[in-house]
Amino acid sequence: xxxxxxxxxxxxxxxxxxxxxxxxxxxxxxxxxxxxxxxxxxxxxxxxxxxxxxxxxxxxxxxxxxxxxxxxxxxxxxxxxxxxxxxxxxxxxxxxxxxxxxxxxxxxxxxxxxxxxxxxxxxxxxxxxxxxxxxxxxxxxxxxxxxxxxxxxxxxxxxxxxxxxxxxxxxxxxxxxxxxxxxxxxxxxxxxxxxxxxxxxxxxxxxxxxxxxxxxxxxxxxxxxxxxxxxxxxxxxxxxxxxxxxxxxxxxxxxxxxxxxxxxxxxxxxxxxxxxxxxxxxxxxxxxxxxxxxxxxxxxxxxxxxxxxxxxxxxxxxxxxxxxxxxxxxxxxxxxxxxxxxxxxxxxxxxxxxxxxxxxxxxxxxxxxxxxxxxxxxxxxxxxxxxxxxxxxxxxxx
Length: 398
Hints:
The protein has one domain (3-184, 206-397): MFS general substrate transporter like domains (Growth Hormone, Chain: A), CATH 1.20.1250. The protein is built from 15 helices and no strands. The protein has helices at 3-27, 31-37, 42-70, 72-92, 96-109, 112-122, 129-154, 163-182, 189-196, 203-211, 213-243, 248-296, 303-330, 337-365, 370-390. The longest helix has 49 residues, at 248-296. It is globular. The model has no long low-confidence stretch (mean pLDDT 84).
């Protein structure tokens, strides 16, 4: 694919993921409050977060393998359509059980994020891959700016909170039409044909990936960091409600703040930071910043400290995640980008399945501050793991 065509394709997938993430960002801050109106306990709130991630755990590698065989475009279109259906089901949920089913379907549809990352790997060079992954991250950031703000406004309308998932469903419909008209296929036909001749469950391919020590180490590192971050993410609204008496509108504004920081870091600064410091230093520095932010957040219940901690967390996540994904893509066979990134999403989804349940359990049993202190301590463990993993990644792969 030529450079101009690659840039056009990157822009198209950026808009596609952006529309999807706006819908996601609208609903995420309202989840605990929405569940509480259906009489959910803190532990059940954790289950609601985990159901979304458990579906991603199962379906991310399956959709990654599928995209390597039939192409990125049809898989992304199907997942966008599924997202619209999930939002409609969420809007109609009259019980907590139906809410869990709706979020599970949304998690299946959200497996397309790994396809988007594989798409970016298809249309970028090794030198520009971190920047391309940062573009996907910027879509997350913008989604978390527009989405929570729009969700907060919609929840104040006469339709109430139900207007949020209905609007998210409408955005998914628009997204489907946009992708149908403008999203080209990124994977060459000959690559797809070669993959189609291989078995669906390619145990040998998985074994080769797992025997690759740097690749395996990056997967484990990705799991640890995501576990810590999801432990924080699932309990933030509960903490703010308990200690600072925040409602869903103020909580949504916190997500807007995090989104603005992510946009600045991943959309504007990441390329220059990569050139100056390299992926290794950004991975280590990002983990260190997140550890400090997590440990400091509950030290004193105040808005100022909360915002400072969220700033550290957002900057740390903003430089760590795309740098890790860039290294993963650089040490992966070009024909297996979808499978590898899908597998990394599964590691992240496993962490996001276990983290919310763990965090809300700690919140209810030990205390409101302990989920953050626990995550901060585990992030220091991740920092030690990262140093060992990165020492095994040869300079030629970075």
